[in-house]
Records
---
Amino acid sequence: MTKQTWERFFDKAETVRAFVAELDGRVVGIAHFLFHCSTSRFSDVCYLQDLFTEEICRGRGVGRALIQRVLDAAQEAGSSRVYWTTQTSNVAGRALYDKMAEHHGFIVYSHEL
Ligand SMILES: CC(C)(COP(=O)(O)OP(=O)(O)OC[C@H]1O[C@@H](n2cnc3c(N)ncnc32)[C@H](O)[C@@H]1OP(=O)(O)O)[C@@H](O)C(=O)NCCC(=O)NCCS
C-alpha cells in the first residue's frame, strides 16, 4: 500500500470506517465498513469490508463482537442491511457468519483492471 493510500484512511472525508477490538490496550481485531446507496432500498446499506482477529485471540468472541458493533452502528445510522462476503473455504468465518446472518446464495465475481 502506498503512503497516499494510507493517508486517505485518516482523511475525515473518507467513507471507509473502522472499529478496533482492544485487549489490555492492544489492538487484536479490526472491522472496516462503509455505507452506500442501494437501487432496491430507500435507505443506505452497509458493506462490512474486512474482519480480522489476531490469531492468538481467535475463538474468544472478538469477531462476533466486531460484527455486532458494525450491526449496531448501521442500525444507528438508519441503514437497513449489513452484508459481507467470504470465501466458501473460510470455515472459521462461515461458522461465525452462519450464526449471525443469512446466506442468500449469491456468489461474487470480480475483474481486475
Ligand atoms: C473469521 C474470524 C474473524 C473470526 O474471528 P474470531 O474472533 O475467532 O470469532 P469469534 O471468536 O467471535 O467466533 C464466534 C463464533 O464462531 C465460531 N468459530 C470461530 N472460529 C471457528 C472455527 N475455527 N471453527 C469452528 N467455529 C468457529 C465459534 O464457535 C463461535 O461461536 P460461539 O460464539 O457460538 O461459540 C477470524 O477467524 C479471522 O480473523 N480469520 C482470518 C481472517 C478472515 O478470514 N477474515 C474474514 C474474511 S471474510
---
Amino acid sequence: MKTEIETISGETPGIAYELIVHRLEGSDQSAPRVYIQAGLHADERPGVAALHFLIPMLEKAEAEGRLLGSVTLVPHANPIGAAQHLYGDHMGRFSTGSRVNFNRDFPVPDESGVRALDTAASATFAERRLKSRLLDLADGCPIVLDLHCDDESVQYIYAPEQLWPEMADLAACLDAEAALLWDVGADRAFEEAVFEQMKASAAGGDLSGHCVTTVELRGQNDVDAALGRKDAEGICRFLQARGVVTAKAAAAPRLADGFVGKPIRHVDMVLAPVGGTILFHVAPGERVEAGQMLAEIIVNPGRSDGTVAVLAPQAGFVLTRRIRRFIRMGDNLLKIIGDKAAVASREGALED
Ligand SMILES: [Zn+2]
C-alpha cells in the first residue's frame, strides 16, 4: 500500500489541510477498481472505524497476491469539517464558512457530459477544491462507497434505482437492514455526482457491475471495535463477491431477514408537531402500525395535558430517530419506511 498526503491550501495565509490517500495495487487490470471514503460528514465516525479495520485486511490481501482490483481509500475525507468546532461542539455537517452541506453541491456533468472540476490552483473555497479532488480520486472506479451514518439508525444503504437489485449483494454482505432507492437526485450529493459521471462515461451506457452508494453505518454513537470489524468484514465479503479480492467459493450472500428495500418516496419524515423533550416509544428496526404511538413530546412537564403524542402516519419500518432528546417544532423526529409511498415523488436528499 502506498500512502500520499495531499495538501489542500486554506483560503487565508497560514492555513492548510491534509488529505490522506492510500492506494493498493491490484494484480489484474480487468478487475474492478474501488474507491472508498469515510468522514465526508466529519461528525460521522463509524466509517472511519470500519476503515481502521479494513485497511490492514486489504494490505494483507495485497501482500499475499489476493488483491485483484486496485483500491483507493480516503479515511478522513473532510479535514476541513473535522477542524470545525464552535464553542466546544464539533460542527462536521455544514461548512461554517459557506453554510453549504459538505455532502451537497458536488460538480456534475452538464448536458453535453462535460464536468468542470476545480483544481488545486483554482481560486475558490478549499471545500470546493476538496469536493473536486474527491470526485477525481473516485473517477474510473465502478465501485464507489461513501461511508456515512445517521442520528440513531439501523444500518442502511442508498442505491440508484438503475443499479438495483444488482447492488443487493452489498446490502447482503454488509448485513444491512434496509435500502432506499432513488431515481432523481437534485442536490448533488457525492453519490449522485459520482453516478452522473459513471453514466456519462460508461461505454454504451452499460452500468452492469457498477456500484455507488452512501452507506449509513447505523447511528453516530455506533462506533466500537466490534462494529468496526464487522463492517470491515462485510465490505471485504462484498469485494470478494465483486471479484476485487480472490475468494474461496462461498454461498451467495443473503439479505437479512426482514430486509426492507423501497423507493425513497416511501420514507415518511415524521416531524415534531411541537418543541420539547422527547420520550420515544419506538426504536430503529421496529415495525409499527398506523396510528401507533411513536413518541411523546413533553411541553409542560408534570401537567396532565403536558405532552403531545406523535402517532405513526402509516404502517412501516422505523429507520432512524433523532439522537438528541430536545427538539424544535418542525425538526425531523423519525424516519419511517412506509409500506406505502409517503409522497408522490421525492427529488434529492431527505434532509439538509
Ligand atoms: Zn452523512
